[in-house]
Amino acid sequence: MKHSNIILAEQDEYITTNHYRRKIFPSLYFYFRHLLRIVYYCNRQAVKGIYDDKWIYSSLDIMRGLEKTGIKFHITGMNNLKKVDGPVIFISNHMSVLETFIFPVIIHPIKRIVYVMKEELVRFPLFGPVSAARDPILVSRKNPREDLIAVLNQGSQKIANGKSIIIFPQRTRSLYLNPSGFNTLGIKLAKRNNVPIIPIIFSNFFIFIIIKNLSLPVNNISTLTFFKSNFGIVIHSFGSRY
Predict the structure, then answer these.
(1) Of 176, 190, 205, 236, which is the most exposed, with the fewest CB atoms less than 10 Å away?
(2) Virtual CA dihedral for 205, 53, 109, 59, nearest 10 degrees?
């Protein structure tokens, strides 16, 4: 599939310009017309060991599929990704699997990213090889102490290799933002490596907000304060429910 403007963050703003008719059954359309096809070809590339920067293309493919389903994106503030040199820790609440598919095309061309994810995800028949090919940090979500050690040790190594890390500190996906339910893995990893934190906030099912607070003193963080800074990326997505 041919793509143009693969680096969305070359500009500060991205707006869906194509107008697609809303689908009667948007979820069925998206999953069967787009997502299964994309995951299948990603699986083939991962098995062959060639799923490297093709991750960005497949992420864009999914974003385009959502747009064809009737979702419209308005992304602003992407220049803020370039204001910090070197790796960062992205901390996000987690509403669905789809945001993990969209982040790479927005962030990865500017900040090389890896995910912290549940180890069972790399064992799934179709999606497993795709997950494993992205060199994730794997946690069990059964033993918090072992997870902490894994994130600190593996995360520090990946940061030393120039990679940024995306962490979902909730135990499970949720449609609601509840920072009090977040664990402190990301904060501890940022402190250990003295790197900035970029909170990624999903304010509701269709509005995503990434806030970067450059003034956060990483060494003194005990809890994350959201909506404190007007720095960052705002992603509005609205239209058909997927």
Answers:
(1) 176
(2) -20
Please provide the DSSP assignment of 30-93 as one string. Answer: HIIIIIHHHHHHHHHHHHTT--STHHHHHHHHHHHHHHHHT-EEEEE-GGGGGSS-S--EEEE-
Contact by Cβ (8 Å): 128, 236: no
Question: Within 10 A of 5 (CB to CB), how many other CB atoms are there?
Answer: 9
Closest Cα to residue 122, out of 37, 56, 46, 186? 46
Q: What is the pLDDT of residues 63-122, one digit of tens each?
A: 999 889 888 777 777 777 788 889 998 887 766 777 788 889 988 999 999 999 889 989
CB burial readout 161-199, b (16+ within 10 A) else e: eeebbbbbbbeeeeeebeeeebbbbbbbbbbebebbbbb
Please, are residues 113 and 90 in contact by the beta-carbon 8 Å criterion?
yes
Side chain identity at residue 150, one-letter code: A
Integer CA distances (angstroms), 239 to 23, 31, 49, 61, in order: 10, 16, 36, 18
Paired tokens of 36: 């299964």
User: Where along the chain do its domains lie?
Assistant: 9-238
Q: What are the pLDDT digits (tens) for 199-242?
A: 776 554 333 333 343 333 343 333 333 333 344 555 555 555 44
Report how far residue 80's alpha carbon sits from residue 12's, in angstroms, rounded to the nearest whole number: 8
